[in-house]
Task: inverse folding
């Protein structure tokens, strides 16, 4: 069945290409023979003196214009009638499209070659030259279609279309080829003093028929946008990666070590990436993670953790993330340490695992990839991975967990929300705070044009004026959410830590 | 005379190509834009979003991305978090075929398109078609360049570098 359909498709493309080529040939021959005919009429009326000189001048002028990429002015701002392909059988429509494009003067032409050759044909008034020029021009019109149509929906075809549509060099080289061809015509005329039979250059025909068809569909997910806005309180800057526990708050100073905020005092920590949990405070020094007593800050033990970065700790587990350009992994080590670590989550390639968050043996993290964004939870003592949120359109990032409570970020291009939900997903999640979308946006309409019609691309008015910062890592306490805000763009404000009351 | 007569007859059959427009160049009707991560509904050949001002690929969050889909700054360098780790990627959906389809619960198609001269370059205006009598504006949909009973739900465009 599929094979038959493929065969049918191939036959349809074949017939369409054949019809287009025939039409382009007929149109081009008609056009250039008509130019030669006009030349004969002119010659009959006014004689043929200086015809070759005029033809040489036209060829040279066209060649220079092509080489210098002089814009075609005046341009014929017309295109083939698109409805034909809907109301006519495809081969017939392609035949007619080919005829219109072959005629040349009925549609957009990207090259001086056509007009130079037309002038040469009129000047020399030679039907044989008209025939040669017509064949050359018709082939020039048909070749891109013949080459591209069979592969138009394959990756190589798309790549070729992209090259034609987005790489000015392709047209520039094509025009240089046209310039060289016209130069050869001029040389042949100078040397022979007569029509350069059969030497008509092949004119390119970019900007041709609007004949493409893509049929795909996707499904899933739904967009929704929250209301409300909470006030955040700055805590520290520069600061990132908050970790809250039992009245304490720790964070990382970018490029330096961690800091513990206890009873209003900031205490430098003996390592980076601090994480609070249970009776512990974990910090990292290179490939070693030191477990401190949270109350006394006395080192209890050191665990080797090659490549460790972000940490999470609880009364019974240490989890660290190892991030490399090729993969990311979350490793779990039981506390007090006595067993080797094991990988509890991993990703390959572009997909990236986020900073881990731990409460007891419940680990939550985000998995961000080009195909989808996911929040996952797993019991590191053993158990399956649970998908808490997943979307192909919305990004879910930077979760934190406290008991059954789950704090996470939900990002769209309009808004970044911090939401509080539950691990067992009972009840509806509630909005904690929000800021504007992470990317810069334009007005949705071109300068000098009306805004009518841009509305669907605009973000809702209630998101207007929201701070442009990008939300980053979070932590959750019984009374507050702690967030990292990244300054907008390179060189912007440094990352800062804020708290939002729950 | 032959050419003039024939040309006029043939030219009468084709459509004029002036770039009169509504909210963006080349769009001459009132159907609104397909929702786009950065605003103006510019896409690449695979229907994925591009930033209108410079053609930079963007992800679904509107962030510029490199060829691998990693978020980058305007100089093309990967965006990093304060610890120097790369920021995570986000999905990059096809505008009509995925994003509009999922947001509005439609099975969308790209049927036809038309071409105009915008900013000195050829622009391909593309109808995002669906079996829906309502367009994104909320009122009655037009047939436009859609086939097989489908109608125009929203519009977007592909900007080439071909001069015009």
Result:
């Amino acid at each position: 069945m599929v094979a038959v359909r493929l065969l049918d498709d191939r036959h349809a493309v074949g017939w369409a290409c054949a019809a287009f080529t025939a039409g382009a040939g007929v149109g081009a021959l008609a056009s250039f023979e008509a130019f030669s005919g006009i030349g004969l009429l002119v010659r009959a009326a006014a004689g043929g003196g200086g015809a070759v000189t005029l033809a040489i001048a036209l060829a040279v002028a066209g060649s220079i214009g092509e080489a210098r990429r002089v814009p075609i002015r005046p341009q014929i701002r017309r295109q083939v009638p698109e409805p034909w392909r809907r109301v006519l059988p495809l081969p017939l429509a392609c035949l007619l499209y080919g005829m219109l494009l072959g005629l040349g003067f009925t549609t957009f032409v990207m090259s001086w070659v056509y007009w130079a050759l037309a002038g040469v044909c009129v000047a020399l008034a030679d039907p044989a030259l008209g025939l040669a020029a017509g064949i050359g021009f018709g082939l020039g019109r048909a070749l891109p279609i013949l080459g591209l149509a069979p592969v138009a929906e394959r990756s190589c075809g798309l790549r070729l279309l992209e090259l034609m549509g987005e790489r000015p060099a392709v047209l520039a080289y094509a025009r240089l080829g046209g310039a060289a061809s016209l130069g050869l015509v001029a040389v042949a005329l100078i040397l022979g003093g007569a029509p350069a039979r059969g030497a008509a250059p092949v004119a390119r025909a970019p900007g041709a028929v609007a004949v493409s068809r893509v049929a795909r569909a996707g499904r899933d997910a739904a967009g929704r946008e929250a209301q409300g806005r909470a006030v955040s309180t700055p805590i520290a800057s520069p600061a990132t990666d908050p970790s809250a526990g039992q009245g304490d708050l720790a964070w990382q100073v970018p490029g330096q070590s961690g800091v513990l905020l206890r009873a209003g005092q900031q205490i430098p920590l003996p390592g980076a990436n601090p994480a609070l949990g249970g009776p512990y405070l974990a910090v990292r020094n290179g490939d070693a993670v030191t477990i401190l007593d949270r109350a006394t800050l006395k080192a209890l033990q050191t665990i080797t953790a090659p490549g460790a970065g972000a940490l999470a700790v609880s009364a019974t587990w240490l989890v660290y993330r190892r991030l490399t350009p090729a993969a990311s992994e979350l490793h779990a080590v039981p506390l007090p340490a006595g067993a080797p670590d094991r990988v509890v989550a991993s990703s390959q390639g572009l997909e990236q695992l986020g900073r881990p968050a731990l409460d007891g043996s419940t680990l939550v993290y985000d998995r961000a990839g080009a195909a989808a964004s996911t929040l996952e939870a797993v019991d590191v003592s053993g158990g399956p991975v649970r998908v808490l949120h997943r979307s192909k359109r919305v990004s879910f990032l930077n979760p934190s967990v406290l008991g059954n409570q789950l704090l996470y970020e939900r990002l769209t291009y309009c808004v970044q929300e911090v939401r509080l939900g539950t691990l067992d997903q009972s009840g509806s999640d509630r909005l904690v705070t929000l800021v504007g979308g992470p990317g810069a946006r334009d007005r949705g309409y071109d300068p000098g044009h009306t805004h009518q019609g841009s509305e669907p691309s605009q973000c809702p008015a209630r998101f207007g004026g929201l701070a442009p910062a990008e939300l980053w890592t979070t932590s959750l306490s019984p009374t507050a959410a702690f967030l990292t805000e990244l300054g907008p763009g390179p060189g912007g404000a440094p990352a800062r830590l804020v708290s939002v009351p729950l | 005379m032959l050419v003039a007569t024939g040309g006029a007859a043939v030219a009468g059959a084709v459509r004029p190509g002036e770039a009169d427009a509504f909210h963006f160049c080349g769009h001459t009707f009132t159907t609104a834009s397909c929702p786009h991560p950065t605003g103006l509904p510019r896409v690449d050949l695979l229907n994925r979003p591009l930033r209108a001002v410079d053609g930079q690929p963007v992800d679904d969050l509107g962030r510029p991305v490199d060829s691998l889909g990693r978020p980058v700054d305007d100089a093309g360098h990967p965006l990093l978090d304060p610890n120097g780790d790369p920021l995570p990627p986000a999905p990059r959906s096809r505008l009509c075929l995925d994003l509009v389809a999922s947001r509005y619960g439609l099975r969308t198609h790209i049927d036809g398109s038309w071409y105009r001269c915008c900013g000195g370059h050829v622009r391909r205006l593309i109808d995002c078609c669906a079996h829906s009598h309502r367009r994104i504006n909320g009122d009655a949909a037009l047939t436009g360049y859609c086939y097989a009973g489908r109608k125009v739900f929203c519009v977007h465009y592909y900007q080439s570098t071909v001069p015009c």
Summary: Residues 1-21 of chain B have pLDDT under 50 and may be disordered. The helical segments of chain B are 2-13, 95-104. The two ends of chain B are 28 Å apart (CA to CA).
